[in-house]
Amino acid sequence: MNWTNLYENTRGTWLKGNLHTHSGEGMTPEEIVRRYAGKGYDFLCISDHMKLNTHRLSGKSGFLLLHGFEWNSKVGEHMNLVSFRKPLLARSTKCHDQKQVLAWMAGEPVLVILNHPNWQEPPHYSREDLMDRPSAAGIEIYNGLIDFLSGTSLATEKWDYLLSRGRKVLGFASDDAHSPPHVGNAWIMVRAAARTPGAVFKAVRSGNFYCSTGVTFDVIRRQGQVITVAARNAREIWAVGEWGVRLDRVRCGRIVFDFATMSSAYRKYVRFVAFGKGAAQAWTQPFFMGEPIDDKRFSPFVGKWRLSRLVTTPLSQIKAAKLSDPSLDWTDVRTDAVPEGFVNVSRRHGSNDGVCYVGTSVTVPRDGVWTVCLGHDGGVRLFVDGRQVLETPKRVNPAVPDRSKVNVRLSRGGHEIVAALKTDSGMGQGIMLRFMIPVSVRKLPRVPVFPESLPLCRVSSRR
Ligand SMILES: [Zn+2]
């Protein structure tokens, strides 16, 4: 599987289906198929509890059935097993030890999906339980039945936990229908090479599908580090990164996401959620970033900083400041790990309004030109050795790395860099700064050279 782009294979047609539904309670297999076909589904797996359903369709309906069942233990763990290896499945219906069954499935052409992790009673899989079952190909990130039971149908927070811990695991949406009202609430769209059960199974196993409760993706495409996702019936699309952090958001049906512009703290993977009318959503599988790109062009974030007291001069009239000026009541601060390199100004100034100087001192090993990349939320003026080099007065939350860039020529030796940040009553919360080798430099040196942090000199404080 190509986890940097599970949608790489663009041949085939999108087929709608559900791998988790039950017969019984008044729904015979024939009736289930009739109900799903009536809602535009192309395929189904009738997954009864501990019983392999080998129902065959009569006539030439074109509807596809995959074989499988829902395995469950006496203490409540549930998982779906889907496969064409009927003897292996039949044997598993007799075993009540999940670890044993999972061990049998490892390496076999079986799709193992851990079901409804957020069903509360009986309690289902904890994050650690899910981590502990590595042979499962996927988890249900949405199970429609839980809307009718205790807990939550959505389990994307557990998915993000697994993905952030490096577990490559697919997300599934299912109805888990036990009676007619449950039919047609959540499904997967699979890009299958042919309209056969085997082609659907192969496409699902390769991850070429997405989950939906009503939104349809028209485009899911990756080119290099840029991913484009479009859904004509979406009102909003989010790009979600590691630990569930929202990296980007558009209030329309099309998003273009570039890994290269993302903070390295959250960009191990990105997945997309589209929101449509009412509660309708759709979820792509994750795209792992793969090989880090162009990182040699960037220095680490500058880690040593000093914050001043608040100054009441408006940003538009603010002058440069010196780190040696004791009247500014400088204090040393450490940068945050999340987001990486963040100098948190509001930790000192809370929701007070004014301008805070954020200063550092660097040494440059040789003369040259570097791009200063400044992340910030509040408006800023940036000074290098007392000279203004940049002004971006508008506040944009949150602070993202590299929002404002400027090329600066620096001679060998020490330099002072000071940003004046408007705190905007606590909405301007901080900055992050790193250097970049200018884009005009085509061939990167084998060992890039950057300005480096100097120990900050002692300032005699007024306190
Ligand atoms: Zn079920």
Structural class: mainly beta
CATH fold label of the largest domain: TIM Barrel
**Which value, in Å, is the CA radius of gyration?**
27 Å
Question: Fraction of residues in helices?
Answer: 10-25%
Keywords:
Jelly Rolls, TIM Barrel, ten-stranded mixed β-sheet, binds zinc ion, single chain, mainly beta, 2 domains
Describe the structure.
The chain is mostly beta strands and 463 residues long. It has two domains: 13-213, Metal-dependent hydrolases (TIM Barrel); 295-453, Jelly Rolls, CATH 2.60.120. Helices cover 11% and strands 35% of the residues. The strands form five sheets. Strands 1, 2, 3, 9, 10, 13, 14, 16, 17 and 18 form a ten-stranded mixed sheet that branches. Strand 7, helix 5 and strand 8 (170-174) form a beta-alpha-beta unit. The radius of gyration is 27 Å and the shape is elongated. The termini are far apart. Bound molecules: zinc ion. Zinc ion binds next to loops.
